[in-house]
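Data availability excerpt. The first of two example chains:
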Amino acid sequence: MTELSYNNVDYKGLVNLLARTFNLPVNEGSLLLTEPLGKGFFSAFNLPGGISVLVSETVFNSGITMHRTAVAGHPNFILQFNQSSQPEKELNYNSSGEQHVYNLGKQAILLTSSLTNSKFIFPPKAHIRSVKIMFGYDFLCEFAGKELADKFLTNYFSIQLKNSNPEPIGTDYRVIMDELIKERIEHPFRQKFVHNRALQLLEKLVTGFIDKLENNNQFIKLKDDEINRLMKVESMLIKDFSGVPPVIATLSKVAAMSPTKLKRDFKAMYGLPIYEYYQKNRMLRAKTLLMAGKYAIKEVGIMVGYTNLGHFAGSFKKEFGVLPSEISIDHHLVQDEDLIVSRSRKN
């Protein structure tokens, strides 16, 4: 397994280090992996406000371990969203038991600080999709306000220490990740697009955590094997929308839990009851298909399990406030620009 040490303060520096290590070229902040090393890519973006984003989809044939050495002074925070197809038996996020050692073959959200030494393991043959956002304390204060920023950081790290369960990647996060994890982002406002999506991910994490904190009843401790079984249930739910969803009895067997425990723990982990979560993902899948511009509305409806076009249109409007016929690439671009302008005015 290759070992690499770094302490870069932005991700373009890390991509350049990877390029030198593996003797590979960098093109506009992107690095393509080649055999026999593996396959996939890293793309880095240095964005306004001092934030840096790294988007990657990789398979390292022999694995790689990255050691991030601590940097003294004003800290940066690193927010990671990692998805993996690694076999379930290997899904231990901190498999060594050591502090600040993270196996990235786990689907989870991770927040760390540049003030600590950390080790990140890319296991051999694991297909890992990841979005990483590096930002400073001053940026978070400007973004969320100092009071909210301090409340988030103080409580997030203390709860993370008490409860070692990583936060799973739910629906809203996955949709944004899917938009970002592309070898080449084809968008007329590429930098703004990445900036906007990075802010959305950060905003969802902060506001979602504060909501849970204020409710004071949504942090539960689950065992590693329970987390893995709930992830299997979630994967089963969103695997195929063309037919009827699996019933609770089937999901309970997969999770090896009683229906009551499954419903409670699934909602605590993913934020929604099982079938609300299914329906939300179903509609988000429909929106993605419509945005691709390759399918007729009726075709999309059938692909997500609707035989009645009226029912599909009604469900879509209930979720997004517009009919399927009103969705277009131009409409999406306007929404992107509105969100960017809105965020700029807020700051």
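And the second chain:
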Amino acid sequence: MKSRPSLPRRHFLRSSSAVIALPFLESFGFRRFASAAAPTTPPKRLAFLGMGFGVTKDTWYPDKNSVGSDYVLPEGLQPLARHRDDITIIQNLANQYNNEAHWGSTFWLTGANRYAEPGQSFHNTISADQVAAEVLGKETRFTSVQLGYEGGDNSGHGPGLSLAWNRQGKPVSALNNPVAAFHRLFADDGTPLEQRQADLRKQRSILDTVLDDARSAKRGLTKSDTDKIDEYFQSIREIEVRLAKEEQWLEVPKAKPDDAIIEPDKGLKGVEEVKVMYDLMVAAMQVDASRVFSYRQPLDTFIRSMGATITAHNMSHYADGARKLVSQERDRKQSELFAHFIGRLKATKEPDGSTLFDHTTLTLGSNIHSIHYLTNCPTIVTGGGSGIKHGRHLVMPEKTPLCNLWLSLLNGSGIEAESHGDSKGRIEELFIA
């Protein structure tokens, strides 16, 4: 392993049982552990945070009659008051094809029609984060980072392994706890370099054999079977790209915490789990490990860590009373953590004196509005990475495609997409003060 200079460090990942420190980027030059070449300006970054079962409708959304900068910040968003000038709340966005009231994230970033393929009961398309990753992820060790949680589908997200879906509409796996994320992002594999190189060669050899067999099998197939084989080929190509990237970064050490600093505790659940995941994303952005992130957040363990004794699903069917109080407290705690994330990005400097916040776009939201309604998806956007004019409450025409927002953020971050999902155009109001 290459030697590393002895340089000042600072702590910035903290929980009750974990503190992670990383080097100042100024000491190494930007992307010290990513490549020898340094960009002239800090890169754009995107992060998507999915909430599952939505929010409390009458205490999370601002009054629709109060738009622009003079709106009243509602009770559920009060912890974001110190960042009010840097957030944008958008109402009336929806996915027109979303018809499953328990699926808060399956189509959130795709806008796909579940029944688009005749005879099939499930169809999905590429998610906005993966569109961004194809462009923003070319120069980083990790093309994108998907975070999730352990446990079954008890948090209102629906089918999928993360928020991310690839070009074929297949689910992309996630790192489902802070320990797994920590090791993937910052810990070097202890296997000798020669062995890792040999393993990659072996995987390539297996892929070559599989491709040869698949090409032989393709002859004489029906159109339906040919389509399936073509989809299979595309999956193989994605594996080839991943292996090529792993090979490219094989000899480049990861940015690592101090040896004396322990990894996150294995038992973290709920509120502390979310906080550490946010901090891990900040750390990964600071060393340019990736520029595209998504986080499919826990809800069942989240409310239980707050002292609730009901399930997330039962909470989501609230009326006035105890369930609604849990839902409202969930909103406030979620806003508190989001404010913490924003604060960390604002406090973390880039080498040119700007901050991570200046070049990052965060979106917090869900496919589900509240109590399983599927209109008016809760949506907050923040960060300077997409050129949005913040500090406002925007109320769009009813049923404006949520994908209009994803197209706007992609374009604002430098991705030249003409459309995404069921988008009908950009939300130009985002960029006009």
